[in-house]
C-alpha cells in the first residue's frame, strides 16, 4: 500500500531558494510506486498553495511553484485538522531557516497530530538558534571555539562597546553570523574593525540576534546522524572550500568547493567525532536526522561547530552523500526518514494526556 506523503517546501524565509532546490531533489528521488506525492508550496509571503498529486517526477522548479492552476488554501484545508481527516500518512517539511526549520511548522504539525519527518519543536528551535544551541552544547561538555552574542538594540545603543567586547574576547579573524539562519546567509569573515562593523550591519539585516565566533585554522569535518532514540552516524566527510570560507555562493550556486568522502582521518579521531555527534544529537533531543559539523585542527583538537536539523538535499549537499558512502542510497535514505517519522509518531501516541 502506498504512503501518502505531503511535501512542504518554499517558505517565508531567506532560505526559500534553498528549500526549492531541496524539494526538486527529493521529488526526483521518490519512488512513485511507493509514495503518493502531494506537494504543498509556501510562498515567500507565507501563502500556502496546494497542488495536484504528482503522477510523474516534476521536471523543473517552476512546475512546483504552482504559479498557474494551484489553489491557495488555509492551513487546515491543506493538512486537515487531524491525521484521520487529512489522509496523509506523513508530512515531509523540506523547509530551511525561520518559519520552517525553527520549530514553528513542527509545532503546527504536532497540534494537527500528524506524523512528520525530522526534528521536533524543541530540537528544531534550539538547533536554529546558534546561541541557544551552543549554550546547550557547553552544558553537555562539548568542546567549542569562543563566542559572544549581541541583540540589535544593544548594538544600536553602543556599537563601539560591542566591537570592543568582540575584539577583547574573540579577536581576529572571527565570523559574524545571524543567530537564527543557516546556509551561510548573512555570514562574514572579519580581520579588522572596519570589516567587523560592516559584518554586524549585514548580519542584523537577517536577525535581531547575532553570534560572533573565533576563527580557527582547521579542517571542516561533517557527519550525518540518523535515528531516533538510538541514532547512528555516517562516515565522515570533509569540506574543502576554495574561497576564504564555505559561503552561500560556494554551497549552492557554483559548487566552488571540494568534498572528500570519506575524510582522511584516523579511527581514533572518527570515534571521537562520532561520540560528539551523538552527544549533540541527544542533548538537543533530536529525531530523524541532523548533520553535525566540526572543526579539526592540525594538532588534532576537535571543536563542534553546529548541527543542522534540516540539512539540504541539493546536488551539492553533504548529508545524502555521506549516507551514500555509508551504504544508504538516496531513495533508501528518504524511506528511512519516513519510517523514523512514523516510529516517533507511534511512540508519542503512548503518552497519556488525561488522568
Structure description:
The protein is an alpha+beta fold and 355 residues long. It folds into three domains: 3-116, Rossmann fold, CATH 3.40.50; 127-142 and 217-346, D-amino Acid Aminotransferase, Chain A, domain 1, CATH 3.30.470; 147-214, ATP-grasp fold, A domain (Dna Ligase, domain 1, 2-Layer Sandwich). The chain is built from 14 helices and 14 strands. The protein has helices at residues 16-29, 61-65, 75-79, 83-86, 104-111, 121-128, 130-139, 152-157, 159-169, 193-203, 248-253, 267-283, 318-326, 330-348; strands spanning 3-10, 35-42, 48-50, 71-73, 90-94, 147-151, 174-178, 188-190, 209-214, 218-227, 232-241, 257-260, 288-297, 302-308. It has a five-stranded mixed beta sheet with strand order 4-3-2-1-5, with helices on both faces. The longest helix is centred in the last third of the chain and has 19 residues, at 330-348. The chain starts with a strand and ends in a 7-residue tail after the last helix. 42% of the residues are buried. The model has no long low-confidence stretch (mean pLDDT 89).
Task: Please describe the structure with a list of short key phrases separated by commas or semicolons.
355 residues, alpha+beta, Rossmann fold, D-amino Acid Aminotransferase, Chain A, domain 1, Dna Ligase, domain 1, 3 domains, 5-stranded mixed beta sheet, 5-stranded antiparallel beta sheet, 14 helices, 37% helix
Total discrete domains: 3
The count of helical stretches stands at 14
| Mass-distribution shape | globular
What is the first-to-last residue Cα distance?
Answer: 37 Å
Q: By helix and strand content, what is the structural category? A: alpha+beta
Strand order of the largest sheet: 4-3-2-1-5
Strand content: 15-25%
- Count of distinct strands: 14
The fourth-level CATH homologous superfamily of the largest domain is ATP-grasp fold, B domain
Supply the CATH architecture of the largest domain: 2-Layer Sandwich
Q: Low-confidence segments, ≥5 residues, pLDDT <50?
A: none
Radius of gyration: 20 Å
**Could you tell me the mean pLDDT?**
89
Output the CATH topology of the largest domain.
D-amino Acid Aminotransferase, Chain A, domain 1
Q: Mind summarizing the main beta sheet? A: 5 strands, mixed
Amino acid at each position: 500500500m502506498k504512503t501518502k506523503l505531503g511535501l512542504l517546501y518554499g517558505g517565508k524565509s531567506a532560505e526559500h531558494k534553498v528549500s526549492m532546490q531541496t524539494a526538486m531533489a527529493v521529488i526526483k528521488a521518490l519512488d512513485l510506486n511507493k509514495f503518493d506525492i502531494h506537494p504543498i508550496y509556501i510562498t515567500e509571503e507565507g501563502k500556502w498553495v496546494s497542488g495536484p498529486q504528482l503522477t510523474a517526477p516534476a521536471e523543473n522548479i517552476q512546475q512546483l511553484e504552482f504559479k498557474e492552476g494551484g489553489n491557495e488554501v488555509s492551513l487546515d484545508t491543506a493538512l486537515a485538522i487531524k491525521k484521520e481527516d487529512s489522509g496523509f500518512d506523513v508530512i515531509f517539511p523540506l523547509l530551511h531557516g525561520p518559519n520552517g526549520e525553527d520549530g514553528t511548522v513542527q509545532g503546527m504539525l504536532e497540534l494537527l497530530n500528524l506524523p512528520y519527518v525530522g526534528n521536533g519543536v524543541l530540537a528544531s528551535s534550539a538547533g536554529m538558534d546558534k546561541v541557544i544551541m551552543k549554550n546547550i552544547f557547553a552544558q553537555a561538555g562539548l568542546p567549542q571555539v569562543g563566542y559572544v552574542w549581541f541583540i540589535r538594540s544593544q548594538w544600536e545603543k553602543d556599537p563601539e562597546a560591542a566591537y570592543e567586547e568582540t575584539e577583547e574576547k574573540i579577536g581576529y579573524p572571527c565570523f559574524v553570523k545571524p543567530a537564527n539562519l543557516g546556509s551561510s546567509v548573512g555570514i562574514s569573515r572579519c580581520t579588522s574593525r572596519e570589516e567587523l562593523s560592516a559584518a554586524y550591519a549585514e548580519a542584523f539585516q537577517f536577525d535581531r540576534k547575532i553570534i560572533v565566533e573565533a576563527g580557527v585554522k582547521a579542517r571542516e569535518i561533517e557527519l550525518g546522524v540518523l535515528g531516533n532514540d538510538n541514532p547512528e552516524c555516517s562516515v565522515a566527510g570533509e569540506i574543502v572550500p576554495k574561497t576564504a570560507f564555505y559561503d552561500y555562493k560556494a554551497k549552492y550556486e557554483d559548487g566552488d568547493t571540494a568534498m572528500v568522502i570519506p575524510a582522511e582521518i584516523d579511527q581514533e579521531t572518527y570515534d571521537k567525532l562520532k561520540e560528539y555527534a551523538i552527544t549533540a544529537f541527544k542533548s538537543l533531543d533530536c529525531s530523524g536526522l541532523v548533520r553535525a559539523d566540526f572543526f579539526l585542527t592540525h594538532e588534532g583538537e576537535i571543536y563542534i561547530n553546529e548541527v543542522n536539523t534540516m540539512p539540504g538535499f541539493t546536488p551539492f549537499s553533504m548529508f545524502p552523500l555521506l549516507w551514500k558512502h555509508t551504504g544508504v542510497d538516496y531513495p533508501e535514505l528518504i524511506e528511512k526518514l519516513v519510517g523514523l517519522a512514523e516510529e516517533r509518531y507511534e511512540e508519542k501516541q503512548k503518552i497519556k494526556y488525561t488522568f
